[in-house]
Specification:
The chain is α+β, with helices and mostly antiparallel strands. It has helices at residues 3-11, 14-26, 31-37, 42-54, 74-107; strands spanning 29-30, 58-63, 66-71. It has a single domain (3-107), classed as Arc Repressor Mutant, subunit A (Orthogonal Bundle), CATH 1.10.10. The termini are far apart.
Length: 108
């Protein structure tokens, strides 16, 4: 699985997106802190954080007995770049199709 695929797979779950948003909003958090304000258990939060960490969307650092997570934006930038590239390719295809259909109408 490519890095971009891992990002999209991780972000496909609405609860994971919520967890990622909360980590970003707080500037970092532990699973326990997140679970206190989310409608899921601490264990569920920890599992979602593990998926986000595998996609490199969060960085985990030990702080005493707890693990603190913070958002790492680089994989998101890669996904945005991929979307921009694919979007540009589709824009080009559609423009080419539009030119072809405009020529066809001119011959009628």
């Amino acid at each position: 699985m490519s890095d971009v695929d891992a990002v999209f797979a991780a972000l496909s779950d609405p609860t994971r997106r919520l967890v990622l948003d909360e980590v970003g909003r707080r500037g970092g958090a532990t699973a326990t802190e997140l679970a206190a304000d989310l409608p899921v258990t601490r264990q569920a939060v920890a599992k979602h954080l593990a998926v986000l960490a595998n996609a490199n969307l969060v960085d985990a650092r030990r702080a005493g007995r707890e693990t603190r997570y913070r958002v790492t934006p680089e994989p998101l930038n890669d996904a945005i770049g991929w979307m921009a590239r694919v979007g540009g390719e589709w824009d080009e295809r559609l423009a080419r199709l539009q030119r072809l259909t405009a020529r066809g109408r001119g011959r009628d």
